[in-house]
Amino acid sequence: MANHEPGWELYRSFLAVMREGSLSGAARELGMTQPSLGRHMRELEDALGVPLFARSPQGLTPTDMAHALLPHAQTMASASAALRRAATTQQDTVAGVVRVTASEVIGAEVLPPMLADFRQQHPGIVIELSLSNQAEDLLRRDADIAIRMVRPTQEALVARQVGNIALGFHAHKRYIQANGRPKSMADLSKHALIGFDRETAYIRSMRPPGMPYTRENFSLRTDNDMAALSAIRAGFGIGVCQAGLARRDPALVRLFPELAINMDTWVVMHEDLRRSAPARALFSHLAEALIGYAKLSSRPSAKQSAEIRR
Predict the structure, then answer these.
(1) Domain of 28: which CATH number?
(2) Would you say residue 153 lies in a domain?
(3) Per residue in 102-128, pLDDT tens?
(4) Most CB atoms within 10 A, among 19, 97, 267, 270?
């Protein structure tokens, strides 16, 4: 039985040890000494009345109880971060901290110029940008604003649809010059294709039926979208990327421009943040900017229009 309620600093130390896998690594992350961190672990175990680590000359090995407590400690860390962001927000002026989460490609390729424009208008707002293809929990306040590719269903979230971001098959000019241009979808199986390693339900829902864009046909398999985009740009082969990004690079060639693959895109935040001036400002800015980006990516270029008519 616990002797007393453990303080947050003990859980923070516990999270660092679980994350780093050792006392020395956790101590470096937190700026503490290793003996102090070891004392934190003993205090937490005494307070909870359960062993969290098996100790040996090789270091600490988390027990089953430690793994069971980990998601709860992560929730505490998310709540602590949300409290810090809320504490820095001044309601009378547009200043504070707003945490945004987005997929790897959206966060690394699409949002930066939009955030740069926002910075010119609101220099008092600090932006934390978290990139992950796994949806962070806005209800748990892991982030304040999210860019999502599926419509949110939770009632406590405020969502604005910004439109469909078009995807298409693309290849670098070097690849086309060296290997020719596929004349039909069936020809794709004869080319070096760049695609996923693990097929998810979302990927299956996006792929038109009968398309030979399947794992067994891929010459490069990766679940990292940035790696796939880089491979297309490097001339490795043919892959799927956002049409809006490809338009920025004249060396990328759109294949089968008549083929439409669309990502339904939403900007989402927790309804409680409607009272936060910084969150409201960034939410509105990103929604308007992404609406423009979605419209541009869905509009064929003059060259593509000519190809469609041929």
Answers:
(1) 1.10.10.10
(2) no
(3) 999 999 999 999 999 999 989 999 999
(4) 267
The pLDDT tens digits for 133-187 are 776 556 566 788 999 888 887 777 888 999 899 999 999 999 999 999 999 888 9
Flag whether 278 is in a domain: no
Tokens of 270: 């927790």
Residues of the chain by 3-state class (helix, strand, coil), percent to 5: 50, 25, 30
For residue 129, being part of any structural domain is answered with no
Give yes or no for a contact between 162 and 284, defined as CB atoms under 8 angstroms apart: no
Query: CA-to-CA distance for 26 and 32, rounded, in angstroms?
Result: 8
Find where tokens 């996006």 sit: 206
Q: What is the CATH number of the domain that holds 244?
A: 3.40.190.10
Q: Which of 45-54, 56-65, 192-201, 230-239 has the highest mean pLDDT?
A: 230-239
How many whole angstroms separate alpha carbon 290 and alpha carbon 301? 19
**Contacts of residue 288, Cβ cutoff 8 Å, sequence gap at least 6:** none
Domain count along the chain:
2
Is 146 within a domain?
no
Confidence of residue 4 (pLDDT cuts 50, 70, 90): low
- Domain coverage including residue 56: 8-86
Strands (E), 119-156: 125-131, 145-148
Contact present, 98 and 85 (Cβ < 8 Å): yes
